[in-house]
Amino acid sequence: MLLLSVLIDLVVMAPARAAPRPGPVAEAGPRPTAPASGAPTPAPAPAPSPSAGPTGAPRHFTVLGAGDVLLHSQFWAQAAGVAHSRGEPGYDFTPLFDAVRADISAADLAICHMETPLGTPAGPFSSYPIFSVPPQITTAIKGAGFDRCSTASNHTIDKGYAGVQRTLDALDAAGVGHSGSARTAAEAARLSLFAVNGVTVGHLSYTFSFNGLRLPTDKPWLADLINGDRILADAHALKQAGASVVIVSLHWGTEYSHLANADQVALAHRLLESPDVDLILGCHAHVVQSFEQINGKWVVYGMGNEVAWQTQQQDTRDGVMPEFTFTEVRPGVFQVTRAQAIPTFMLLSGASGKLVEIPRAIASANLPAGLRSQYEASLGRTRRALLARGAGAAGLEILGG
């Protein structure tokens, strides 16, 4: 049951993009444990007024999402080589994000998807099917410009409570916020609220499955499973606690299918028909899925892989980073006024893996013909997937053509 009063500790950002990034998660009272029916809820926070900047422009901010960060063993070897070349021990994943750092850092709020649990700094590590990967990836994530990560996935509890604890400890140490899993019941109950350009934003994260693993009976709060009633109750609690915008990250769908399945579509409609959910960012399929506008709001069914070493088919190398501009259309009410997609490609060659930002790469006159062919083929696949549910007519801009 929600507390009748809610305390929010907001860290307010200045509007400039070079300003500090969103602050840490605010403790704003407990989340509901079940959909409330006549249950007391906090009184709504006063609606903020549009900013009175020198130009008189309405308040706005950008949100960038990214697909699965899925570290296979080939990346560990590459990161160890990078660190060794600098005379350092351990692992350095920073170069993985070189090509997209400008895009990520330019967004006012950038959200990654940490699909796997993290191990101890020196290992041992493991890859598919039970992951435990180097925690040094969090330094690279922060360095790329990500502000927070969704952590609810089908691999979240691969290493049980200890894996969740290590993952969240490492994200905290790197200064990266997170939603979707927790170390304590109290942490699980807290609402994730933070400020972006002075606008209060909430973030939620859920997964459809844990690959047959079960949550510990004494820790049912360890990670969040998809349940429509629960999501709507949590989103409503965030709005009641003062959020102007609520973003929901969902690990869902059918692997290796570009088509959103019936369950995805039904849940997207249910959530976006509520006034409490403003944007859905989807992961899990390992290929790009469609964008769709529902009730004037956007769902990204699947962003594909951001970083992964999957070679079974070409389209598992494709990814997309969606960027949405939220603008205050009346006091305290924000809507997406621009929707963009930045296609990416995971270039895997021998023992080397490199994330490519497609629009920037193909704009180069010096790009070798072989790579141009690969990148243009990737762009074509991504474009077809993105537009399959009418996103083009709704105004989606796909960078790169």
List keywords for this structure.
single chain, 401 residues, alpha/beta, Purple Acid Phosphatase, chain A, domain 2, nine-stranded mixed β-sheet, six-stranded mixed β-sheet, 15 strands, disordered N terminus
Please characterize this protein's 3D structure.
- By secondary structure, this protein is an alpha/beta fold.
- The protein has one domain (60-398): Metallo-dependent phosphatases (Purple Acid Phosphatase, chain A, domain 2, 4-Layer Sandwich).
- 23% of the residues lie in helices and 24% in strands.
- It has nine helices and 15 strands.
- It has helices at 73-85, 101-106, 137-144, 160-174, 185-189, 228-240, 262-272, 358-362, 369-386; strands spanning 60-69, 109-114, 148-150, 177-179, 193-196, 199-207, 245-251, 279-283, 291-294, 297-300, 305-307, 318-330, 333-349, 352-357, 397-398.
- The strands form two sheets. Strands 1, 2, 3, 4, 11, 12, 13, 14 and 15 form a nine-stranded mixed beta sheet that branches. The protein has a six-stranded mixed beta sheet with strand order 5-6-7-8-10-9, covered by helices on one side.
- Helix 6 (228-240) links the parallel strand 6 (199-207) and strand 7.
- The protein is globular and about 50 Å long.
- The model is unreliable at 1-21, 23-28 and 33-54 (pLDDT under 50).
